[in-house]
Structure formats: structure tokens, C-alpha cells
TrEMBL record:
Record domain Xylulose 5-phosphate/Fructose 6-phosphate phosphoketolase N-terminal: where: 14-374
Family: Belongs to the XFP family.
Entry-linked Gene3D superfamilies: 3.40.50.920, 3.40.50.970
CDD domains the UniProt entry points to: TPP_PK
Named cofactor requirement(s): thiamine diphosphate
Residues annotated as domain Xylulose 5-phosphate/Fructose 6-phosphate phosphoketolase C-terminal: 591-793
Protein name: Probable phosphoketolase
Enzyme class of the recorded protein, top EC level: lyase
Amino acid sequence: MPEAPRQDSSTQPTDEELRTLDAHWRAANYLAAGQIYLLANPLLTEPLRPEHIKPRLLGHWGTSPGLNLVHTHLNRVIRSRALDALCIWGPGHGGPSVLANSWLEGSYSEKYPDVTRDAQGMELLMRQFSFPGGVPSHVAPEVPGSIHEGGELGYSLAHAYGAALDHPGLLVACVIGDGEAETGPLAGSWHANKFLDPVHDGAVLPILHLNGYKIANPTVLSRLPQDELDALLRGYGHEPIHVTGDDPMAVHRAMAQAMDTALDRIAEAQRAAREEGVTERPHWPVIVLRTPKGWTGPAEVDGEPVEGTWRSHQVPLAGVRDNPDHLRQLEAWLRSYRPEELFDAEGRPVADVLACVPEGGRRLGATPYANGGLLVRDLPIPSLDDFAVPVDKPGTTLHEPTRVLGDLLAQVMRDTADRRDFRLVGPDETASNRLQAVFDASGKAWQAGTLDVDEHLDRHGRVMEVLSEHLCQGWLEGYLLTGRHGLFSCYEAFVHIVDSMVNQHIKWLRTSRRLPWRPPIASLNYLLTSHVWRQDHNGFSHQDPGFVDHVLNKSPEVVRVYLPPDANTLLSVADHALRSRDYVNVVVAGKQPCFDWLSMDEARVHCARGAGIWEWAGTEDGSREPDVVLACAGDVPTQETLAAAHLLRRHLPDLSVRVVNVVDLARLLPREEHPHGMNDFEYDGLFTTDKPVIFAYHGYPWLIHRLAYRRAGHQHLHVRGYKEAGTTTTPFDMVVRNDLDRYRLVMDVIDRVPGLAVRATAVRQRMADARTRHHAWIREHGTDLPEVAEWNWNA
């Protein structure tokens, strides 16, 4: 049983301690403001001149003093209580503060030795901020101690809970800006405390920073009466602790007491759960911090109030280079922090400034929990042969691919039961997506009330279900970034809800790959099922395969997209994805019964190739080039392509047909554009340079054209896919409506192979007639034609 952090009842800091806390806070404020403004003269050893000022003033001051206050006081409790802690900095563009604090504690110089902890390094720290060739204005991968990109708002609290899962000794503080608190994802994230296990998980301490304003408007929560805000937070299951003021020493005293009170409550809740077996869900503390926006900055500029208003959001003094009054005001502002008391003659922080700073890996900028590649272990994945389905002949037996995968995931759950570093997340769809075998190994995480009718709810479960794709994504990102593994299972159409979140994660991975001090983390793996072609029962609202298009627009060194056509290829792809590092893997696979095409050995080889010829499916004999290539990607398109090949074999036996299946979509790209891409020799050998290629694709057809537009044979490429013709109908009618059916594919062959249009007119007419019969049949019987419903490869 993990130990709870110890309590510390000494909630009253001494005057001396308050003095050193204030020194640290002033130093961080000075460095934060200096990063926005200064090119040179970092210690103000001479009067400020225009040439000391950056030509373009970029950055955000308004949130910085509050973030610095939190960092200072987290240092205090981490040091006094010997805590392992991580902080998520939610407010947008909080970079100056977190950079300043990591430089003060020395972790920044450890990662970037040229930015030394002295005057020379201070000048470089300031110069590089929001400067060409430097660092961004928000908390980014380059910032030690960060796992959260601060440029896009709404995800901080979900990331914090994901980081706390299965880290029982970890405190995750999360600063939530009051602008960020207005977003939907953040509002949904308050419910995450109903999933936090006080026995096996760490604790999350939300710090709601109400400084009153966004870019140009007041914030909703800051304008609520305190009793209404308290009622809201208590309704979410939190007990608020308020810190309010603008007098620094009074705020320091109140903040120190609030931190101690919150951590004592957390420690007691964990002790009761871990030592006494208490199962009642705790009401976790939340600190509500009200300080002025732009606190300690200019009170007024050009006759307009600035401190405590929206005008302090970005750069309070914008005309410093050209306006002597602004320059004088900036110098007075910077000197108000008394830098000569905070740094010695060489620019090193003095002892008072560093009195609260923890040591070693407990510094917030040095914690290994913010650099998950240091903690991640290989996932124990069992042999695929233990889960593979037997395939004596292709296309004669059927299995539900995701159900087969569920058995594998259940074993992974069992094999990680003690180490607890694998989670399955999804929006209320684990069983719907046929993955319910995992419930034999782990229940669903749940800390709220239960009823006798409930199934699989488990206070210590590692399956996470909540009807918020944002929360699922945020949990998994936080989990992966702190050194663990996982899989996000989702209906294909609704994964678009997290389009923007995956953007940010891809950017994070792309940037962190360029930082030698950030080792690789486990990949973010999506399993998209209940897909477009088998949402015939739910209809048009549930039919959208476009997430693949969205992802393939992103950094090619990071993104991977797989469309396994059957159960064994899904196992092979999943094995690869779960073992991989620093990728975003998107796997699209069906949950409905699907033909088994390849044995496990064949599936491994085919998936390793990513795209290949299925010789048994075509009719080419090797004596000449094929007359036509039937290509396919996706389970339903593969079935329709093979059914079309079957029809061609019967009706046009002299036609030489090649069948190509694509599992890895990036194989279609040129090698120079994607690491998985084919060079021109490979591509031309597979698809030919001058023969018609009829490509049946799972998603929007123009994606295939975009991937292959530079190939020599692109003018001969004809793609069929989803074209927004969806409704509630039969499974086969979905493909007919979108012209992806076997009969249409045969017609396309006849239309595009030179000479067939005349000599195969009768065959084409039969295909068109079959489509007509289909329309009449489903309207009378409500089911698909028997020749379709009962088809198999060996029929």
C-alpha cells in the first residue's frame, strides 16, 4: 500500500520565511518582466537606454505575477514536506514565469548550459524570449518541468488528472486561469475527481487563479459572488480555500497557510483510504487565488489604469523604445523589485532567493514526472499467436476484429496489474466497441455512488470511461507524458471533438524530438471503430471518416495511420503501435463481423510492408503486366474490392487483375515526404505507371489523390470512397450510395481498361442491373441481397 504524504501542521510561516519567499517572488517577477523587454543590461547596472530594449515587444505580463506566487509557494511546501510534485501551468502564455523560475532553481541551466545562472546567462534568458531563434512566449516543450502546452486553453486540469493516475506519491498542482475556466473542456474536467483513486493515484490540487480579465473582457468566474462560486466548486466535489489580496506580505502569509491546509487535507484523505480502507469519496481542496492582473506592474500608463485591468494582459508599456516617459516608467517598474538585493554582482541569485527552492529532482523544473521518457518502461505485450484467429482459406470465416483485440488488451491489463502503467480510455464505448474482455482484468475507474444494477465499476479500475472525448484525450496525454502507456478507443465520427487537442500533442512531440534531454515517450494510440461503413443503424450523424485527413496534414515524423483489413492484421498493427515511441498512431478497424483474409504470419509480413500484392486474390500470372490494379484500404473497401475481383474472375477470366491492399496510408506518400513513404521505383512496381488503378478507400477519396498526386501514374488513378452519402440503411446500401460497392468497381474497370467498354458491355449492364435489383430488394425486405449477404471468397 503506498504511503500518503506526511502532514505538516505548522501552518504559520515565520516572518523570516515570509521575507525569503517574497525575495524569491520578486526575483521571478523581475526576470519575467525582463524577458518581455530587455535585450541587454539585465541587472540595470546602468540607466536603461532604448538600445537595451527589444525592437518587438512580445509576451504576456498579466498572468505572470500570480504564476510566480504559486511557483514560490509550491517550492516551500515541496521542500518542507519532501514532496514529489509536478505543476501544470494552465493560463495562456505563462512562459516568462516558468522560464524565470526554472532559471532561478538551476534546472534551466542544466538543460541549456549556455544559459548560465549569472549575468551573462540572465541576459541570454531575457534576449531569447519571444525572439527569432529563441523560445516561445508560452509554456512549451523547451521549458523544463512542463508537460502542458500553454498556448491553447482548456486542457490543464485533464492533463493534471492524467499525470496523477497511478502515481500514488505525486502531487500535481494545476493553475487554472479564469479565462481558461470558461472553456468546455475545463468545465468538464472538474468531474475528473470522481475517477481519482486515493489509494493508487496521486493527488491533484487545482489552483483557480482569478485575476479578473481575459484579453479584453472580464472573466465569468471572477465576477461571481463568492457564495455562488463556492456553491459551484462544492457541487463539483471540491472544498474551496480562498486567498485574496494585493498586499504582498499578507498574500504570502495567506497563501502559505492555504497550501498547508490543502496538503494536510490531501494527506489525511489518502491516509484514510490507504490505511483505514475508507471508501467514501473525498471532497478534495481547491485554492481560489484572487490577485490583480499585472500585479506589481505599472499602475497607470498614459492616464489609463493598467494594473488590475485587462490592459496588463500582454505588454503594459508598449512604446518604450520611442517614448522617453515609457522608458522611465519601465526602469522604475524593474527597479521596484530591488534587483541589487536579489542577485550578486555576478548576477547569481542570492541565498535568500534560493532559500525556498527544493533540491535535485524535487525542483519543479527537474522532476522526472515532467519528462516521462525517463520513467517509461517497455509494455509487456504477449505473443500474438496466442490471440490470432485461424485462417485456413482467405475470406471464408468471420470474426469481429476489435473483439479479438480486446482479448490481447485484457492480457496486457493483467500483465501490468502490479506496475499499473497501462490504461484504456474511451467515451462510454468500451463494450460497444467489443473490447469488453478487458473487464475480466480490470474494472472501470469510479469513485462516485454505485447501485446494484451497475457492472464493472471498480474504485481501483484502470479502464476510464466518461462521456467527454476532451477528458479522455487529456487524461491519456497526461498519463503518457508522465511515463506510461495507453489506448484511446472512440467512435470514428466523434473523435473529431479532439481535433485541436491532437494538434497540440503532435506539435509537442515534434518539438520534443528535437530536444536531446527529452527521451521518447509512449505513443498516443487511437483505435477508431464503429466506423463510417457500419454506422448504417445510427445514420448520417455518426458517419465521418475525416479524422485521418486531419492527422495526415500534420508533422510526418510523428503521425501514422493504419487501416488493417481483418482481425490478424489489427493484432499486428496494435502490437506495433503499443510498442512504439513518440508517435500518434491512428488505427481504424471495424467491430462488426469481418472476413479473415490473412493468417497471423501473413499479417505480420503484410503489415511490415504496409502495402502489398495479394497474389491469391488477383489473376495476373507474371507473364505480362496486369491490365488493371484493384487497390483497397480499410476493411469494408477490402471486402468490396475482393468481391469485385471475384466477379471479374467469373465474368472476364482473360483480364489480368492485380489486387493491392494498403494497411499503412503513409506508404502512398513519396519517401522524401514521410519516413514510411515509397520511393518511385517501389510505387511504380506496385501500381504500374500506365495501367488503370481503381482504389477503394475507407474515407474521403480526395485524400488518396493528395497522397499520390506526384506519382507517374496519378492520371490513371480513380478513387472511390465516402462522399457524404449517408443515412440509416443496410450495410451494403451504404457502399452502394457512395459508389464503393463491388458492382460499381467492376463497372469502373470496364470503363477504364482500354477496349473493355465495347467487348464487356454486357457485363457492365449486369453490374448496373444488380445495383437496380439491390435498391428494390432492400426497400421490400429491409435486408441486403442474398448474393451479397451470403457471399464469401470461396462461394
